[in-house]
């Protein structure tokens, strides 16, 4: 197999443990170069992670580093331009979630990926984390019979512990992130719904800025109806009391219930509990599948076309307030 030689665009906090080290730990994969606009931080990252080359300009890295793939880990506002540039140069692309600011941008990215020879995969990495694969197994084996309803609740205080506490909280700037904490966290949850239940036929919702502590909406509500007649109801609130902090998905069927936390380490099947230890680098299982895809060993583990559907759902949940 070919060695996939990676360059990271945006070697910030998200790449320190979750993803960055994994590129040197999966077969046929090597992290060759990193880029960050702050040259001192790029150099420091390269030194600490034993990466040979570092850059402060993405175009220069793509042209000079000897790579054949990029991992785009910048804030979402930059995803589209970097992905289009990489695809045009014939480089494979692995891009973080949310894939873009909105569905219209996602469609542009998907069109470019489908038109060229280079490949693109989206970092909805929970698809290959053992806990979430176990949920899929329990669903497919009808461990709770026929599914009748799915309920998602993610209620958090204004400074969620689920989100990195950084000085410049770009996640709360819609022009950079696409929205607020909903746009940062909900893609993990909603992508799993697509992965588990298939094709959505209807989706709608609304959003509110109740707390006015940022420009982003802090309360989002939405519904999805899937082709197989499974309804999903979601509630996201980022201005609750700490005592009301909640992260749960409940899948209720004719024969019982599956419960799990999207950002936790357990599954409950009726009265039985399964506990999990996540991989040290939680994106490593997905990166391994992406490398196989780039080497023609498997199909795309998460395509841009799938991400377009996800972004359309997210847009529909927040569109009322944007209008």
From TrEMBL:
The keyword Transmembrane helix does not apply. Residues 132-258 form the GFO/IDH/MocA-like oxidoreductase domain. GO terms for molecular function: nucleotide binding; oxidoreductase activity. InterPro entries: Gfo/Idh/MocA-like_OxRdtase_N, Gfo/Idh/MocA_oxidrdct_glycsds, GFO_IDH_MocA-like_dom, NAD(P)-bd_dom_sf. Residues 4-124 form the Gfo/Idh/MocA-like oxidoreductase N-terminal domain. Keywords: Oxidoreductase. Pfam families: GFO_IDH_MocA (PF01408), GFO_IDH_MocA_C3 (PF22725). It comes from the Bacteria. Coiled coil: none annotated. This is Gfo/Idh/MocA family oxidoreductase. It comes from Hufsiella arboris. The lineage of its organism: Bacteria, Pseudomonadati, Bacteroidota, Sphingobacteriia, Sphingobacteriales.
């Amino acid at each position: 197999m070919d060695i996939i030689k990676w360059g990271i665009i945006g070697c910030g906090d998200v790449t320190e443990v979750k993803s960055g080290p994994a590129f040197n730990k999966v077969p046929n994969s090597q992290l060759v170069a990193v880029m960050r606009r702050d040259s001192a931080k790029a150099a420091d990252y390269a030194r600490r992670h034993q990466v040979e080359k570092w850059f402060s300009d993405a175009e220069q890295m793509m042209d000079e580093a000897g790579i054949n793939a990029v991992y785009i880990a910048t804030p979402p506002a930059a995803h589209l331009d970097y992905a289009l540039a990489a695809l045009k140069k014939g480089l494979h692309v692995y891009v973080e979630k949310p894939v873009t600011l909105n569905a219209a941008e996602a469609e542009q990215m998907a069109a470019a990926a489908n038109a060229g020879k280079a490949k693109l995969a989206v970092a909805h990495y929970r698809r290959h984390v053992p806990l979430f694969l176990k949920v899929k197994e329990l669903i497919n084996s009808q461990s709770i019979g026929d599914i009748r309803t799915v309920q998602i609740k993610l209620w958090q205080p204004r400074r969620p512990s689920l989100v990195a506490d950084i000085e410049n909280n770009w996640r709360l700037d819609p022009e950079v992130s696409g929205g607020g904490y909903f746009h940062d966290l909900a893609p993990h949850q909603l992508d799993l719904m697509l992965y588990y239940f298939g094709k959505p036929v209807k989706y709608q919702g609304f959003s509110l800025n109740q707390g006015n502590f940022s420009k982003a909406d802090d309360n989002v509500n939405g519904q999805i109806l899937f082709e197989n007649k499974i309804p999903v109801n979601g509630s996201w609130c980022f201005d609750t009391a700490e005592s009301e902090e909640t992260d749960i998905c409940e899948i209720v069927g004719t024969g019982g219930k599956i419960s799990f936390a999207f950002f936790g380490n357990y599954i409950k099947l009726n009265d039985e509990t399964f506990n999990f230890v996540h991989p040290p680098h939680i994106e490593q299982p997905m990166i391994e599948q992406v490398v196989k895809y780039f080497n023609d060993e498997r199909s795309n583990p998460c395509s841009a076309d799938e991400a377009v559907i996800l972004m359309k759902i997210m847009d529909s949940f927040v569109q009322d307030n944007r209008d």
